[in-house]
Amino acid sequence: HIKCILQLLNNFLQEKNITLSQISLLGYNLGPGNFTSLRIGIAIIESLSYVLNIPKIGISHLMILAEQSWKIKKIKNVISVIKCNKNLLYFAVYKRTLKGLWIGKKSECLLSYDIFFKKIILLKGIFTLISDIDQYIQNNVKKILNKNLEIIFINKSYSSEDIISIISTIFFNKKKIKKHYQINYIKNIF
Fold first, then answer.
1. Residue 61 and which of 38, 69, 72, 143 are 20 to 30 A apart at CA?
2. How many helices and strands in the chain, by DSSP H and E?
3. Phi, psi angle pair for 187, to nearest 5°
């Protein structure tokens, strides 16, 4: 991040033929994620926001994955999972409203693989599961599926367009932007 983020920002502005003074809102990934990467990205956003007097909005990484899943499959129930380490996963269940907003931020948690499987068993309906989890996990999830649960697997990878889409929906629905957001570092226990 630190070696190339400012150059990436400069390249982006040149590519889009815009200047910093033309930007009216900054969006960024709040995590969960790696401490150093999050701090560098957020420090740059905070600095730009302060210096240019531009509001900022932070979006959960798990919610960004839910938005990506929606764009791919158009299924409103989404399980977002990010591998934390060999024993723990970041987990959230999101539901997309008719207005395009995501409900489920409070479901975000850090859990063991065993608890993850127990949570999956309790779900009913059609879900997409978007994640960086390995084939072992996918195979075990498939084993516990029942007639009340269907899961479609998607590998994660998102773009800035997913963040922009969430922010646009928030604005369209006239939701307030907070001044401060809690960052989800990789070892937070939510």
1. 143
2. 6, 8
3. -110, 15
Question: How far apart, in Å, are the Cα atoms of 74 and each of 90, 112, 169?
Answer: 23, 28, 16
For residue range 93-141, list pLDDT tens digits in order: 999 999 888 999 899 999 998 999 899 888 888 898 888 776 777 777 7
Go through the domains of the chain in sequence order and give each one's CATH number. Answer: 62-155 (3.30.420.40)
pTM of the model: 0.81
Q: How deeply is 162 buried, as exposed, middle or buried, from its count of CB atoms within 10 A (0-12, 13-18, 19+)?
A: buried
Q: Which two tokens stand for residue 135?
A: 């084939």
- The burial of 40, by beta-carbon neighbours within 10 Å (0-12 exposed, 13-18 middle, 19 or more buried), is given as middle
List, for residues 15-51, the tens digit of each pLDDT value: 889 998 898 888 888 888 777 888 888 899 999 999 9
